[in-house]
């Protein structure tokens, strides 16, 4: 396999939840004090999983045109109330400020250990940015806390639509003033890459086999003909930067 430069790639955009950051452990950590304060019997990981399960259906309503675009923070907040209702708790019985604070759990996620060093290497050669369904402030807070070195914040709130709608990928390429084939989507989710490839983007799969815990059954391996397949961002950088040292001018 050649380098990314051989493919004409100029920018890399990244799925964030599950690919760059470990949402499950982070949310479970942040909800634990709330569970204790409310004397709930639910496991903190089951709470996190239940919250995440509402993610796709909520975005589908926007993609289908059943509601106007709202940022993911709004959907997360609504989904939190659904989770509480499912646990037999009336969300109105809890101060709104407490729920607003709990909703910030998604702003406090830790990166996978290889993410920041791998991104830092890739940034030396490529434009790097999130292409997440997360809103701008959410992405900024995660990046500031974790030291993620994005060049820009792109994604759903910028183009006013959620993945995997084609406009998310195509409008992002246009915003970067490049052709779709010059943009590479990096994700741990095969469906994200399938949608990106259908729009003409290059694709890179990075395996995150513990995103959903040890019982994970989906996205354990690459399920398509992606341009790059790696087990970490560091391995991805090794693949994409092949030959770059030969292209650099000699040190003076």
From TrEMBL:
NCBIfam families: HAD-SF-IA-v2, HAD_type_II. The lineage of its organism: Bacteria, Pseudomonadati, Pseudomonadota, Betaproteobacteria, Burkholderiales. Keywords: Hydrolase. InterPro entries: 2-HAD, HAD-like_sf, HAD-SF_hydro_IA, HAD_sf, S-2-haloacid_dehalogenase. The keyword Cell membrane does not apply. This is 2-haloacid dehalogenase. GO terms for molecular function: hydrolase activity, acting on acid halide bonds, in C-halide compounds. The keyword Metal-binding does not apply. It comes from the Bacteria.
């Amino acid at each position: 396999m050649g380098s990314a430069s051989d493919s004409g790639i100029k920018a890399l955009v990244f799925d964030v939840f599950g690919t760059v950051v470990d949402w499950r452990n982070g949310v479970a950590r942040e909800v634990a004090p709330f569970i204790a304060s409310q004397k709930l019997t639910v496991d903190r990981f089951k709470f996190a999983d239940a919250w995440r399960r509402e993610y796709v259906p909520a975005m589908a309503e926007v993609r289908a045109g059943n509601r106007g675009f709202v940022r993911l923070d709004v959907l997360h907040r609504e989904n939190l109330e659904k989770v509480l209702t499912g646990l037999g708790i009336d969300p109105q019985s809890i101060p709104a400020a407490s729920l607003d604070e709990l909703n910030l759990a998604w702003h406090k996620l830790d990166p996978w250990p290889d993410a920041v060093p791998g991104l830092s290497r890739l940034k030396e050669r490529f434009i790097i940015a999130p292409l997440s369904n997360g809103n701008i402030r959410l992405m900024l807070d995660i990046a500031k806390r974790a030291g993620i070195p994005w060049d820009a914040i792109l994604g759903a709130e910028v183009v006013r639509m959620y993945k995997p709608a084609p406009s998310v990928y195509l409008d992002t390429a246009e915003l970067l003033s490049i052709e779709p084939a010059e943009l590479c989507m990096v994700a741990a989710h095969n469906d994200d890459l399938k949608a990106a490839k259908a729009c003409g983007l290059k694709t890179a799969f990075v395996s995150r086999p513990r995103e959903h815990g040890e019982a994970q059954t989906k996205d354990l391996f690459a399920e398509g003909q992606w341009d790059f397949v790696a087990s970490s961002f560091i391995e991805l950088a090794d693949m994409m930067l092949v030959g770059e040292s030969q292209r650099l001018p000699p040190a003076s």
